[in-house]
Description:
By secondary structure, the protein is an alpha+beta fold.
Amino acid sequence: xxxxxxxxxxxxxxxxxxxxxxxxxxxxxxxxxxxxxxxxxxxxxxxxxxxxxxxxxxxxxxxxxxxxxxxxxxxxxxxxxxxxxxxxxxxxxxxxxxxxxxxxxxxxxxxxxxxxxxxxxxxxxxxxxxxxxxxxxxxxxxxxxxxxxxxxxxxxxxxxxxxxxxxxxxxxxxxxxxxxxxxxxxxxxxxxxxxxxxxxxxxxxxxxxxxxxxxxxxxxxxxxxxxxxxxxxxxxxxxxxxxxxxxxxxxxxxxxxxxxxxxxxxxxxxxxxxxxxxxxxxxxxxxxxxxxxxxxxxxxxxxxxxxxxxxxxxxxxxxxxxxxxxxxxxxxxxxxxxxxxxx
Length: 343
């Protein structure tokens, strides 16, 4: 007997790719596929009923069997996922994947217990864990609400990543979504193995990029992902985040990256034709680059994309729209000073 429609077949890929997608935002009005699975399929299967104001994200992949957002008057917000794991993945391991992104120190089996609430939804019991950003840079704070369900050699993780206010408003919808899910584990246990991240810059490079940042921008420590890392604030408490990152290849292409950023500032995704309203040509370090300028009512995104020697460089300023407009010339001055040092 075939499985019902609105059913998702899942095959494992990259765990970190799935988590990276969860901590970014998303687009709206995707095309949702429904189909019937044949009986010979032996992998995990999941189906669900979405709340009316939720939408499915396009380009779902990696570890996620499903990916959704909340439709709001300010555009798509938040990210909800469906991720199957092997049964041996412990609650502490999963919690720490998200805790590190939110500024928490690693939990152990003892310290994680007070965070876990058991909740009965229908005839199933879920583990519910809530984590909030400890950086103090966002208000309301970014929050991860995690739901775990273990059954038939599988652990199913349902993460809801958004600001605290949105999660509180959508809590009953989230629980209703969990209750609606139908899950079937695969005959072969899923092996969820996190691969290494690509280096933030070429390990063999003899030259490091240079740039000139405004003196009032607060420089933060570089990370594995960020070659350059700055915070920009004013007396009113408005905040901008500036980063310089680099990855091998085109990282999905200009359209995919611009749409991901647009979602982060509450703007609906665009297509190739509409991309031109955000994109313009610019020379950076005597090399052709693209400048991206986008503003919603409250948030702004200014970014430069430079592809050189089979690597993509992103110089990105994001945050409060009013402060971004004030800092726009400083941002343009920085990207004009950027030099790869490989002449």
